């Protein structure tokens, strides 16, 4: 399922226009992104929790040359599925 398919499903399920569903989805993603940027976690009961994870600096390898390279520390988005989501896909 891609974004367009998800918008169609939201529009059908909520009985709203595709344009309104697209704006709602964009708004939800924007709100989650803004909260994660501030370092907050976002919990949607029954769905899951979005949080920010930290990756430490490490040494990797250039796949072409095999030479070691230094990879900087970074932040990444993490998602942990909630009970409702886990039970829904069994």
Automatic annotation (TrEMBL):
Keyword Electron transport: no
GO terms of biological process kind: chromosome condensation; DNA replication initiation; DNA-templated transcription
PANTHER family membership: DNA-BINDING PROTEIN HU (PTHR33175), DNA-BINDING PROTEIN HU-BETA (PTHR33175:SF3)
InterPro entries: Hist_DNA-bd (IPR000119), Histone-like_DNA-bd_CS (IPR020816), IHF-like_DNA-bd_dom_sf (IPR010992)
Protein name: DNA-binding protein HU
Matches recorded under SUPFAM superfamilies: IHF-like DNA-binding proteins
Job of this protein: Histone-like DNA-binding protein which is capable of wrapping DNA to stabilize it, and thus to prevent its denaturation under extreme environmental conditions.
CDD domains recorded: HU
Any one annotated GO CC term: HU-DNA complex
Keyword DNA-binding: yes
UniProt organism field: Immundisolibacter cernigliae
Family under the similarity heading: Belongs to the bacterial histone-like protein family.
One MF term in the entry's GO annotations: structural constituent of chromatin
Pfam family, one: Bac_DNA_binding
Keywords associated with the record: DNA condensation, DNA-binding
